[in-house]
Amino acid sequence: MIEPPSGSRVAANTVTPGCCAPVIDSALSDAEAAQLAGALTLLAHPIRLRLLAILARHGGHVCVCDLEAALPVKQPTVSHHLRLLRDGGLIEGERRGQWIYYAVRREALATVRGVLEEFWARMAD
Fold first, then answer.
1. Taking the C-alpha atoms of 40, 73, 91 and 35 in order, what is their torsion angle to the nearest 10 degrees?
2. Beta partners for residue 100, in sequence order
């Protein structure tokens, strides 16, 4: 990685006298990077990916008891990951008696897909 001389600060798209033309282009704003990082953080765990896959494949609401039975972890771990997915807006929960039934928020997943597709399209340009 090429860094400016110690003590100097150079903006990303400026040309330093005696230097070559800038090759660094900030293809991602701070807000876009934060949004993408948030989405990737939510998806960056095998249990959360499996939960999303189960819910997406089912298409409707799935009882938390069935989710717990389908995964190789204990109930507190499943609840933790469901809470993260719910707080991240990727799933929704509906209480029915003593159980909570979860479903994927398809519009939220479509948004994540769009952000990822846009990111990779920018990287290809």
1. -10
2. 95
pLDDT in tens, 6-59: 444 445 555 566 677 666 666 678 888 888 888 899 999 999 999 999 999 998
Q: How many CB atoms lie within 10 A of CB 16?
A: 12
30-43 vs 106-124: helix crossing angle, rounded to 10: 120
Please report, in angstroms and rounded to a whole number, the separation of the first and last CA atoms in the chain. 22
The type of residue at 110 is A
Provide the CA 16 distance to its chain's centre, in angstroms: 37
46-60 tens-digit pLDDT = 999 999 999 999 988
What's the CA gap between 44 and 38, in Å, rounded?
A: 10
Can you tell me the distance from the alpha carbon of 90 to that of 52, in angstroms, rounded to the nearest whole number?
A: 8
